[in-house]
Every structure is written in structure tokens, then in C-alpha cells.
Write the C-alpha cells for this entry.
Amino acid sequence: MDKNLLQDTLNETVEERPDLALPLTLKSFFPVLPNQVDLKIPEGYAFSREHGITATTSQTTVESVYGSVIVPTAIIKTDEDYHEPVLRLYFWNNNKQTWIKHHLLVDYQMLTTTKDISKLNKAMQIVLKEQQKPALTNYFVMLWEANERFESLPTIIQTQRCGWDGPNNFYPFIITNEETFVKTKIKTLMNAIIRTAIDLPKGNKDEALEIIAELQDNPVFAVCLAGCLASPIVPLVAGKLDENIGIDIYGKTTAGKAAIQKLAIDLVYGMGNLFRLSWANFKSAGMWNMARVANNLVFICNI
């Protein structure tokens, strides 16, 4: 874009809007915010729906930082202390005249390091050219400082385990806040559980009752099904049942014990394969990791 045209546009905007001479905030340019929290715009910067983020480098020079306005809207933390908090980003899409959520959750270091900020390209929503990286990283540093480390942003706690997440959410099967979906590495059990839960089809009650009727006299099925139905109640009776429970189901190797247990878990949670440890993967650390993630839900140790 022609720099003179950009400068003229900004000058005209300030003349038409005297309030823009005051300390600027996001709401100075966007009456509709991606969330309900306004942010201060760093000194020397301005926003435009058409031209994105601009920076005044001298009294007569305005440089384009990036062609879309990008702002954080929430701080995302996990319910486990060893994870660093990350930020949820939104950017303005002028063609659609709306704010769009960026697919990635990013940490502060990623946004403020020239090398790492290119990771925003991975989602194919924001495309950064090499010469844009230094200016955009500097913008995020200044935005962070102008807004006191984003203390005004809402903090959302992500769940890293299955089970109850507050009084109304049974994670990940009944969840009301999409932001709580976990940020995990792809090759982890929790990530697999979340992705499976999102795509699970609705069950058929009549078909489930037929299976239960057919297997009602099978003790392996009865024990596992009872565990699946009872396990969500365990956290609600704290002090009554604080110990882990393990039930040893024995029989011939080819008797179908694991298959029956998996079927019971599939009926209730739809993901019997994920709540199962095989002999090849059975180690003490793996068992306790499964227990941590399952968080009182039933899982199978096929050993």
C-alpha cells in the first residue's frame, strides 16, 4: 500500500474523530470487541479496519506493521502448575467484517521472538513475510507493556483430565465452554480422548439396552459396566471413597475378557480403545499416567 495514502487516511480519521487524539484503545477503532475487555493501544500505534496495525516511526512517517489487527482476548492456563499460560488470539477479517479466532494458542515468548512468531503461519490464517516479523514482535511487546501484562484479560482454566470440571461440566463429554478444550501435544492420551469425544456420534438407547440385556449374565461385563456408571459419582462422595480400586478379572487368554470390558466402556463413553493399557505398554509410569488422565473413570489393564 502507498505510504502517503495510508498517512492521509489516518490524518482524515483523526480529524473526523477527535477522541482518537486521546489515549487510544481497541474500542476507539472497533465498537464491537472480540470479547468484552478493551485494550490500550501502545503509544505510536494505530489500528485500521482496512489497513490493520500501523506504527508512527517519525512525525511524517507511518509504517504498516501487519495488514490485520491481531489482539489477545484471554489468558489460558491449565489445571496443572507445570504448564506455562498461553494466549487466545483473535484477528480482524475486513472482508467478512468480523473477528476470527486464531486456531493456535500461543505463549508470550512465541509472539515476541522473531524466530518463533512465524509459527502463527502454521494455522494458515495469518501469513507473515520475513520483513514483517520484527515489527509485529515489537508490537506485541509494546501491547503487553501497555496493558500491564494483560492482567485485564479473562483467565480460562483448561482441563487436563477427564471427569468433573466444575458443577456442570463432565469433561470432555458434557462441556459448555469451548475454550477449556485442552492444548496438548498431538501424541498424548488426553489429546486423543478430546478429539475422539468431539467426533463421537450420538448413541442409540434401544441398541444399548439390547446389548445390556444380552450380556446381563456376563460377570465381566457387569463389573465393568457398573464401574463406568459409578465412577462419575466417586468425586461427589469425597471422604467416602478415597482409595483407588482395582478388580482382577481372570480367565483364559482367549476368553474375551478385554473385548467385553471395552464393549462396556464403549456403551457409556464411546472410547473403549483409549481407556485400555496393553501388556506391551504396561509400565508403572504408564498406569499412573492413565489413572491421572482418566481421573476416576474406569480403564482397562490388559495384562
